[in-house]
Please model this.
Amino acid sequence: MRVAIVGGGAVGTTTAVALKDRGVSVTLYERTEIGDDTASSGRAAGLCYDAYAGSLDARLGSRSMERFRELDAAGEIEFTDCPYVWLVRSGDTEGQDALRDSVDRMRSNGVDISVLDGDTLGERFPALSVEDVALAAWVANAGYTDPGAYTRAMGSLAADRGATIFEETPVSINADGTVNTPAGRESFDVVLVTAGAHTPSLLAAAGLSVPIKPYRVQALTTGAIDVDVPMLFDATGGYYLRPAGDGLFVGDGTEPIERDPETYDRAADDWFLSAVDGYLETAIEQTLPVARSWAGLCTATPDGDPLVGPLTDSIYVGAGWQGHGFMRAPAMGERLAAEIRDGGSSEPFSPTRFDGDEDFEIVEGMDRE
Ligand SMILES: Cc1cc2nc3c(=O)[nH]c(=O)nc-3n(C[C@H](O)[C@H](O)[C@H](O)COP(=O)(O)OP(=O)(O)OC[C@H]3O[C@@H](n4cnc5c(N)ncnc54)[C@H](O)[C@@H]3O)c2cc1C
Model:
């Protein structure tokens, strides 16, 4: 079986490795360099955990965590175990109800998650400002890694296993599943499109419509910090942070507006930079200098679930990750590879659950139940 993969982000490269492990011939086309900072995988935070309220998502999260640690043990990537703390502040009763409800559902999926009050959280992480923390969920099976480095590592592993990799090679596809490359039109048994925010336009050129909308999010890294923090999501404030080198990685700035991946503004907004000062004051009672800041794209779908599986006999898709594509890449790559080789579709993620012309709002987050 000969498979072409269009897009060498975290999902495409991981699927390439998983296909090679299943004895499939793989040719991967990447329009820039694998793992560079032009695509989402090179601009992501790399927060990873298994804390999902959906049972399939939790299984996929758990498998991904296992795989990140296997890759770390094998020396392929550096993965740092670190608890993920999701907190809600006093006065945010809606947030507290949502946290309790999600924790119950996560527990029913076997997720190792405990609920703490602010004082207990403060004992574990004294640098955190916990005075007005009403509730915090503590996720044990969590950690972080550098998404660009992971993607490059997967690209190298795929090449070591015999995949043919073309970088700096933008391609397009045709309705019959053939690929237009700089060397001419190539035929494969299956073409998998894992082109991130470019996925809808690539498929549209082949006459296939998918309801995926790219939207902008923002992030920055800070100068050095001399206290210990976990990976933290402040649900009341709507920001997250994690340790990054000797500083922090801080993210937020989601804009529910559809963006063109060719022309979107890749610089962080001034409002985001000033908002981060407020987030840090709230979280750790200090501000930190900005080392680097940027904007990147995530992709939304009508129901918050990704589109994974066959669109036609020969064209597959893996996209629409709703801000959670990196941490799910190890498990989703394996799933996609198994489906491509053996047939079948990733219910409930089958892309044909949509007509393709759905009108929908971009909503942050993936849990719509
Ligand atoms: C600031 C930020 C923080 C994030 N934090 C997290 C996080 O903590 N955890 C998490 O799970 N997710 C996070 N995400 C989301 C995550 O980045 C994405 O879900 C994930 O990287 C998607 O990977 P991908 O391989 O599908 O797409 P991409 O990484 O976008 O890769 C698609 C690739 O396709 C290539 N391509 C496009 N068109 C063509 C073409 N015509 N021919 C050939 N190649 C083409 C692109 O160049 C690109 O390399 C974050 C995103 C951002 C922006």
In short: Residues 155 and 210 are 27 Å apart (CA to CA).
